[in-house]
Amino acid sequence: MDTAVVGNDTLRLGAVPLMHKVAYEAAKKVENPNPAERAAGRTSVYDTWLHIEPWMDKNGQSKGVPSPYIIRQIKDLMMLLERAFLDPAGLPLRPLKKHLLFAENAHDVYAGSSFPGLIDLLFQIDLDPDPQGRWERVRHHFSVILHAIQSAGATLREVKRFMMETL
């Protein structure tokens, strides 16, 4: 657990999710040192927390704040969305770059580019000794990008389903 005193009267406590309930139960047992708070009926540190930031009810149940496990599940779904745009084979002319949507521009180190594989393939395509072969690579990479977008869409459908069921 980590604690911090803000100003002269506010105690902030941070803990891993498994320790939240322990921290709340401990705060219920600590008598409120502020006489004005005690006069207002807030006899414990926990009562003052509820008054200042009412994120929980008197039974310790969350009010409108998702549990840490739900937040973790949402973050996992976001990570799956991001992974949908990674290609293990890499970009056509830069196999060490795996992200299909974003990478630095291969021809201008100060700029980034969206769809870098397509940008690389289309750059000076008319000067290529085999333009037909290059256009074939453009078509192939375009199909890879479309597949990634469809996969990301499927991931978003899962997110929507999860959000409807959970929150």
UniProtKB/TrEMBL annotation:
Residues 58-156 form the Transferrin receptor-like dimerisation domain. Gene3D superfamilies: Transferrin receptor-like, dimerisation domain. Signal peptide: none annotated. InterPro entries: Peptidase_M28B, TFR-like_dimer_dom, TFR-like_dimer_dom_sf. SUPFAM superfamilies: Transferrin receptor-like dimerisation domain (SSF47672). GO terms for molecular function: carboxypeptidase activity. This is N-acetylated-alpha-linked acidic dipeptidase 2.
